[in-house]
Structure prediction request, 264 residues.
Amino acid sequence: MATGETLPSGHQSRMAREFVLTLEKGQVNMPRLSQAQKDAALYPHAMAGYILWLRDHWGDMAEGKLGEQWRASREKAQKEGQHLRLPEAVAWLHWGLLLGTQFVQEVGALAPVQREELAKETWTILLALAEAQGLRVEEERPANRFLEVLGTLLAQDRALLQSRLGVDGAKPAPHQELIGYQDQDFVYLLPQAAHKAVADFCRRQGQPFPWNARAVRQDLDRSGLLVHGDGRFTERVWADGGAEWALKVPLAKWRHRVFPREEI
Prediction:
């Protein structure tokens, strides 16, 4: 458990191993927090009692009952398309609450109906948090981050998609990087040039791009964006008087993923 002002940036896999709770100003009940701080000396005793309670009940847990219930909670939390680690986090957190409140109920500090209401409320909140976390995980997919940065570079006129047939006669200006070509049907990204442009931009922003060019190509393909033959991700394309190996993306999909706001 850790606190911070901003979320760590980086790899999708790392993000999926986090479970983020965002606290906004006004969400904390300050009088109750102040009272809790005054009672802080009681917490070590409560925790010691809970640990002893777990010790006394460990046999039942070890016999598989807890594991079966946890797996049932994980399956209940699963959502199609969501990273597989998020339902696990929901199940662990919820079962941590259930065990803790069972102890509190048995020592007479919580009524059964209160425990049941708290469990239902917590389950709903955890699912909502997992959905929000799933969106963060999706944003950190290599393909999504790659296309997001390319969109920024193109919007800022730092990168250029040159006409494949030389119709517009545009050539890269000194401040631009040629990242590929386009025609009326497709965008043809030069893999190494586009990856270098993205990596350089992220490095200048202080948020390194952690994926190599191959990882990006694979995720673009998994996302259904690439048109290619069997055996490789690139296709040979004639452009600017020569042949290039390029990542071939349908123009409609490119516009939808890179410039979604223009379609609104």
